[in-house]
């Protein structure tokens, strides 16, 4: 299955180029031009990795990260930052971001970080699936509970 | 979004575990200690000399007390039904309650109670559970699935290959582990298909395809349960009950009756799903999605040392079960599954210990204790006579009619309660029923009628863990919403349940039971145990 990536940046031209580069390498890419739009999109759709610009009008990258992690904790986030906003990227990693990338980013480096982030998410999902299967094995009825979360 | 999710609005009354715990205990006290003992129960205990046996064992002092003990044992049954059905307490705890009650209420001599936890059947089950841990730990189940499905293309080939292969695999290794692995793979296949057919940047879902793939997987794994004793603990329990009547069945003999059904049932699942549930599917070419399996295969790379060792271990254990269970029993070879992975350093000892479902083990061993309680107290005999009276009036008191009646009841009960609980509760009652029917081949035939039917828990989620796994883990990758609604189990599974039952009646009861026949003397041996109500007779050959 293709890795699902959401690119979030207010610079339309930049994310257009980036998404094109990723699509050529067989990633399933969607884009958003603001943090609000990304948070809204993530309410109904799952992505494996979100590439999130730190500095955006409206809610900034750090706030968007906080909301994303609150609604979809398994989604891995990579912060995009310039030299002036490295501190925010560090803050983001303290809040659960997987890593950060300096703009303008090299495609190979971007892909390497996306793949690593996806591996971490896949491993975590596998562990959750195993735990759920164990629960269903001992109690099939537990699958009917409303609080049996669907991620 | 073209699909909607309907989450159940809680499970209502069943959710109140404390309530059901109290109800279960109250029913136990009512039946076991308050209701008057039926005259017919006292008569059976006296006529069969069960009172003398219990007095000799020091369990009762007179006939009246022996009958009271039988009533106490009868009180355990509705309590266990309530606990299994509502999961008021963990199933393992329901199991362990049986020896606890036997000790504290002095229902059996203390030397006999622990025996049900240490016979061939409990050790066999322990080994089977350890085998599942070893297979999952090294990822051998993934390798098998990738080999089997990786080459397929189109729609019909993968569906038929999936059904037959999963049914066969489900006969020998943990169907639940395979189901847990294959459910996300099925959803990846699904997503690959819909992604390739959707316009760029948008996913047009095909919920009929998602449900088709998940139910095909689930049903195919369910029907594999009839194939061998290793398919599930419920089969092991039944073998334990036969052993209690001095007529143990060996591994290969079970396979002779059950395994021929497996590929047939697998094919039937495929045909049923294609005929009834493929018409509304929009995307009938699974090829783009099957790359998910090829990707999995590529990721796994070459077969590794741990996989070779585990695969060799499976083959060795299987061969020993088939050819040497006469001397080694079933437990002996099964226990190699605890030894070999540690000696050959493929799975860590503590990982095996932590991976074994002790909940299941305690539940099954407790079921064997309950079987012994019912048998030795005379309660099983009284229940069997009462039910036989009803079946006689329906003309179903022996042979085919009895097997149809027993399998129908067991098949229904397994959907509402659970496959393991059904065998645990019905086994001790149907074996004396089979013996009382006086048909050669009993009590094996009646036991198999019940055990086979417990593999068809197709139409309610709670019937088997496979159902819960496809329901709980079968989520759309892009939205996380569940692909199956609880009501879909009835829609997709009920007709298949009827079809599976009819196939077992025709192919097993009218076909293989007659063609293969049964060893001479098993009815007489089991009847001897039933009538003496005491000593376990010498085992007779299981014949292969």
Structure description:
The complex is a heterodimer of chains A (151) and B (544). Chain A is α/β, with parallel strands linked by helices and 151 residues long. Chain A has a single domain (4-150), classed as 3-Layer(aba) Sandwich (Rossmann fold). Helix content of chain A is 50%, strand content 17%. In chain B, 72% of the residues lie in helices and 1% in strands. Chain B has helices spanning 17-34, 39-47, 50-57, 63-86, 91-104, 110-113, 120-138, 140-149, 156-172, 175-197, 207-223, 233-244, 251-258, 261-277, 287-300, 305-328, 331-343, 349-355, 358-377, 379-393, 399-416, 419-437, 444-453, 465-473, 486-516, 522-532, and one strand at 440-443. Chain A binds chain B through residues 1-2, 4, 28, 30, 44-46, 129-130, 132-134, 136-146, 148, 150-151, and chain B through 1, 7-11, 14-15, 86-87, 90-92, 176-177, 179-180, 184, 188, 191-192, 195, 201, 292, 295, 357, 359-360, 418, 461-465, 467-469, 471-473, 475, 477-482, 486.
Corresponding CATH superfamily of chain A: Response regulator
Could you state the order of secondary-structure elements of chain B as H and E?
HHHHHHHHHHHHHHHHHHHHHHEHHHH
Largest interface, and how many residues on either side? Answer: A-B, 27 and 48 residues
Low-confidence residue ranges of chain A: none
Mean of the pLDDT scores of chain A? 88
The major beta sheet of chain A can be summarized as: 5 strands, parallel
N→C terminal distance of chain A: 18 Å
Strand content of chain B: under 5%
> Count of DSSP E strands of chain A?
5
Per DSSP, the total helix count of chain A is 5
What characteristic shape of chain A results from the CA principal axes? globular
* Helicity level of chain A: 40-55%
CATH architectural arrangement of chain A: 3-Layer(aba) Sandwich
CATH topology of chain A: Rossmann fold
Output the radius of gyration of chain A.
16 Å
């Amino acid at each position: 299955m293709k890795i699902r990536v959401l690119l979030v940046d207010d610079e339309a031209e930049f994310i257009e180029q980036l998404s094109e580069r990723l699509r050529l390498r067989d990633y399933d890419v969607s884009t958003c031009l603001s943090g609000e739009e990304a948070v809204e999109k993530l309410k109904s759709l799952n992505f494996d990795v979100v590439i999130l610009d730190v500095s955006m009008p409206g809610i900034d990258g750090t706030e968007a990260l906080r909301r994303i992690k609150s609604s979809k904790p398994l989604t891995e986030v990579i912060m995009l930052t310039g030299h002036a906003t490295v501190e925010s990227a560090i803050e983001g990693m303290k809040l659960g971001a997987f890593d950060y990338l300096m703009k303008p980013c090299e495609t190979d480096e971007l892909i390497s970080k996306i793949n690593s982030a996806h591996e971490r998410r896949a491993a975590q999902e596998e562990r959750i699936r195993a735990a759920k299967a164990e629960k269903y094995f001992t109690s099939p009825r537990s699958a009917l509970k409303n609080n049996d979360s669907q991620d | 979004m073209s699909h909607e999710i309907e989450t159940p609005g809680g499970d209502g009354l069943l959710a109140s575990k404390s309530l059901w715990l109290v109800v279960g205990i109250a029913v136990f006290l009512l039946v076991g200690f308050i209701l008057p003992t039926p005259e017919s129960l006292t008569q059976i205990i006296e006529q069969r000399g069960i009172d003398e046996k219990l007095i000799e064992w020091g369990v009762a002092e007179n006939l009246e007390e022996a009958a009271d003990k039988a009533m106490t044992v009868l009180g355990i049954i509705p309590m266990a039904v309530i606990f299994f059905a509502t999961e008021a307490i963990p199933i393992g705890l329901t199991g362990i309650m049986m020896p606890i009650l036997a000790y504290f209420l002095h229902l059996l001599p203390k030397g006999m109670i622990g025996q049900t936890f240490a016979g061939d059947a409990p050790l066999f089950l322990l080994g089977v559970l350890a085998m599942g841990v070893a297979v999952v730990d090294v990822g051998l189940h993934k390798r098998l699935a990738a080999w089997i499905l990786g080459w397929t293309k189109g729609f019909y080939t993968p569906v038929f290959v999936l059904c037959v292969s999963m049914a066969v695999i489900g006969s020998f290794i943990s169907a639940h582990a395979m189901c847990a692995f294959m459910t996300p793979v099925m959803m990846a296949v699904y997503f690959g298909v819909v992604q390739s057919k959707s316009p760029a940047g948008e996913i047009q879902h095909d919920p009929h395809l998602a449900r088709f793939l998940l139910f095909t997987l689930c049903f195919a794994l369910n029907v594999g349960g009839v194939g061998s004793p290793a398919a599930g603990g419920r089969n092991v329990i039944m073998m334990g009950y036969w052993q209690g009547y001095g007529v143990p069945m060996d591994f290969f003999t079970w396979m002779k009756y059950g395994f021929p059904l497996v590929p047939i049932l697998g094919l039937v699942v495929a045909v049923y799903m294609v005929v009834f549930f493929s018409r509304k599917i929009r995307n009938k070419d699974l090829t783009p999605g099957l790359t998910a399996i090829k990707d999995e295969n590529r990721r796994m790379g070459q077969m590794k040392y741990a996989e070779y060792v585990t695969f060799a271990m499976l083959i060795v254990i299987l061969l020993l079960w088939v050819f040497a269970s006469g001397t080694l029993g079933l437990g002996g070879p099964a226990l190699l599954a605890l030894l070999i992975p540690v000696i050959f350093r493929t799975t860590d000892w503590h990982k095996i210990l932590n991976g074994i479902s002790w909940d299941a083990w305690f539940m099954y061993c407790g079921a064997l204790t309950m079987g012994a309680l019912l048998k030795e107290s005379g309660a099983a005999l009284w229940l069997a006579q009462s039910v036989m009276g009803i079946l006689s009036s329906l003309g179903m008191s022996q042979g085919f009619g009895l097997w149809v009646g027993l399998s129908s009841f067991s098949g229904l009960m397994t959907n509402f309660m659970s496959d393991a609980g059904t065998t645990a509760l019905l086994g001790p009652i149907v074996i004396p029923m089979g013996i009382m029917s006086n048909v050669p081949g009993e009590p094996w035939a009646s036991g198999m009628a019940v055990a086979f039917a417990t593999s068809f828990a197709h139409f309610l989620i709670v019937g088997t863990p496979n159902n819960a796994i496809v329901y709980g883990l079968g989520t759309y990758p892009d939205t996380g919403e569940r692909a199956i609604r609880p009501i879909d189990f009835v829609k997709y599974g009920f007709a298949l349940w009827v079809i599976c039952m009819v196939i077992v009646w025709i192919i097993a009861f009218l076909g293989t039971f007659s063609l293969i026949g049964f060893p001479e003397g098993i009815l007489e041996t089991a009847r001897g145990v039933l009538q003496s109500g005491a000593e376990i007779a010498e085992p007779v050959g299981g014949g292969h």
